[in-house]
Amino acid sequence: MAYRDIRIIGDPVLRTECDWITDIDDSVKQLVEDLLENVDAEGRAGLAANQIGVSLRAFSWNIDGEIGYVLNPRIQELDFDEYQDGDEGCLSVPDLWYPTKRAWYARAVGIDLDGKEVVVEGEELMGRCIQHECDHLDGHLYLDRLDRRTRAKAMKDLLAKGL
């Protein structure tokens, strides 16, 4: 397994918008392999490429026993008729969980390693994962979506942890 270190809050790669993949070469194939291998661990629902230090638009997921990936995802639809406001965490913000409002349903469109269109969609945890990972690829962390009071608590908690 190609174990990759997870980048932690404060690393500039997490705040940089990822580049679109224009050429599916061996390095992109290796990236997908690394994303799939590294998301396949207990407690991991998703992993964006920049979380392992690669500033390309790609993420993997591990939801309800299904592991997959998508390249160049872009959110196509969010259903705000119903929200979810459960606790959200992030490998790049270790051991801290905060209530984060998200759309109940999300749909993203991208491509696979063959350049064929891929649709990734889901409700609840899958919907949250799609939104969370696409945020990463846009240079955002879930902390950016917290309400003002919760964000202030999160910043205090980060300082207490030395992050």
Task: Write structural notes for this entry.
Its cofactor is Fe(2+). With 163 residues, this protein is α+β, with helices and mostly antiparallel strands. It has a single domain (12-161), classed as Peptide Deformylase. 26% of the residues lie in helices and 34% in strands. It has helices at residues 26-39, 124-137, 148-161, and strands spanning 46-48, 58-63, 66-84, 87-90, 93-99, 102-111, 117-123. It has a 5-stranded antiparallel beta sheet with strand order 1-2-3-6-7. β6 and β7 form a beta hairpin.
H/E element order = HEEEEEEEHH
Strand order in the largest sheet? 1-2-3-6-7
Annotation, overall tally of beta strands: 7
Computed over alpha carbons, the radius of gyration is 15 Å
CATH topology: Peptide Deformylase
Binned, the helix content reads: 25-40%
Number of helices: 3
What integer is the average pLDDT? 95
Question: Structurally, how many domains make up the residues?
Answer: 1
Oligomerization state: single chain
Detail the poorly predicted runs.
Answer: none
Architecture, according to CATH? Alpha-Beta Complex
Overall SS class = alpha+beta
CATH H-level superfamily: Peptide deformylase
